[in-house]
Write a structure and sequence with these properties.
Bound molecules: guanosine-5'-monophosphate, zinc ion
Helix content: 25-40%
Low-confidence stretches: none
Strand order of the largest sheet: 1-2-3-5-4
Mean pLDDT: 97
Radius of gyration: 17 Å
Structural class: alpha+beta
Shape: globular
Number of helices: 3
Order of helices and strands: HEEEHEEH
Largest sheet: 5 strands, antiparallel
Length: 139
């Protein structure tokens, strides 16, 4: 339900202030305190869970629906040119707050953070790719 040491649980409880753009019984959606772009927001489930592995799948489905609704609404209001929806799991993946959250990041032509998601590609042989494909195939 709640983790006493979790900053997002404290925000959800109203113990730490935040700018809230939406709230219902399952979620609170707040502006990110260090935004990557104008309107960068976070969908927080009210019940504490650390990551994608822990979140209830029905709640995750509701979060996905909410992400779509907000992406449409925010894009209309902010007149952004594109939109990223991100979700990090684990320190190595860039997660810094270990309470599940979905980033809603409006993107704009000419914005400061234009390289936000620019990664270089890794090289794998065709054989390696075949093995990887076989290993992660969902049967
Ligand atoms: P992560 O790196 O875990 O995917 O994202 C965590 C996000 O939470 C970061 O973008 C960070 O700026 C934001 N954040 C961390 N602490 C606070 C806070 O106290 N208030 C708000 N509104 N955002 C926070
Ligand atoms: Zn929490």
């Amino acid at each position: 339900m709640r983790d006493e040491n979790c900053i997002f649980c404290k925000i959800i409880a109203g113990e730490i202030p935040s700018r809230t753009i939406f709230e219902n019984e399952d979620f609170k959606v707040i502006l990110d305190v260090n935004p990557a772009s104008k309107g960068h927001a976070l969908i927080l489930p009210k019940n504490h869970c650390a990551n994608i592995y822990e979140i209830d799948e029905d709640l995750l489905a509701k979060a996905a629906k909410l992400a779509k609704k907000l992406a449409e609404h925010m894009s209309g209001q902010l007149k952004c040119d594109g939109f990223n929806i991100l979700q990090n799991n684990g320190e190595v993946a860039g997660q810094t707050v270990f309470h599940f959250h979905i980033h809603l990041i409006p993107r704009y032509h000419g914005m400061k953070n234009k390289d936000l998601l620019n990664w270089t590609h890794e090289e794998f042989t065709a054989e390696e790719q075949d093995q990887i494909c076989e290993k992660i195939k969902l049967k």
